[in-house]
Protein: mevalonate kinase
Amino acid sequence: MTLPTSAEGVTRSHRARSVGIGHSHAKAILLGEHAVVYGAPALALPIPQLTVTASAGWSTRTSDDQDDLSYTMTGSPSRAMVTQASDGLRRLTAEFMARTGVSGRPHIDVILDGAIPHGRGLGSSAASSRAIAFALADLFGRELSEDAAFDLVQTAENMAHGRASGVDARTVGAARPLLFQAGRTEELKLGCDGLFIVADSGELGSTREAVEMLRNGFARRPGAQEAFVRRATELTEAARRDLAEGRPEELGARLTDFHALLRAAGLSTDGIEALVDAAHGAGSLGAKITGGGLGGCVIALARPEQAREVTRRLHEAGAVQTWVVPLKGFGNHAS
Structure:
């Protein structure tokens, strides 16, 4: 069935049956957060088991309604979060209509159902935007390329976070871990086994606040930005080689060293430090903040036989949720 390009003239029963569906997933940054905004490389990990699904359908509202878009999030998001997300969604939707030539001002109801916790550095806003973009494409019968999807997600991300690097927008649609730098991506070679454990501290982080805090700190200290970016680049490039060449102990040490860099920049919290210490105490190969910091999540690298103990200790230290992402799941790993 060919879907209409406008709600005008479409019967209410037809609209009720016409629903577009889009999917996406979470992500975690292995190394490179913050520095990636200044052109440094970043390594990013898809989290395929943490998903979000968007459904978009014709609204039963009349054409006299001024608001063209109804947006509903499942769960219990804060009013401020819904407002911020709605603003980005409206911009994304308007951009989608312009890019794909949808005529008129169709009234659309969007429902977002996701398992990605908000404000934890797991790419919830980017994943939501991507799912919605593909739901709209499905509803209107449009093809959406990866580059077009990226541009649409960035439209919403720049509203939510200010200057978004693009790493989230790429990774929430990726099937494999990525190297991201200056807008370009490539799939990482995986020569390591082992698994990553992501632990939610339960503390809301703020990427925008963290980015502004770091930028202000750089402005007060001449040479600080260059030193931060240089060290971040060294660690990220070394970690990429360790990951490709099968050196898990060295890779874990890069994670820990990058955490020290972020902690020195003021981006950690007592809760985050407790989780990092717990991961180390349980024998993990390395652990760090993942994402913007000032709350959010910790990511730890562990051997498979360590996973149960690391996870247990993380929960004892205050983690409210944990997720395990095995490198074997992405293929191209050591035998």
In short: Strands lie at 19-31, 42-58, 69-73, 108-114, 178-181, 184-187, 195-200, 286-290, 297-302, 321-326.
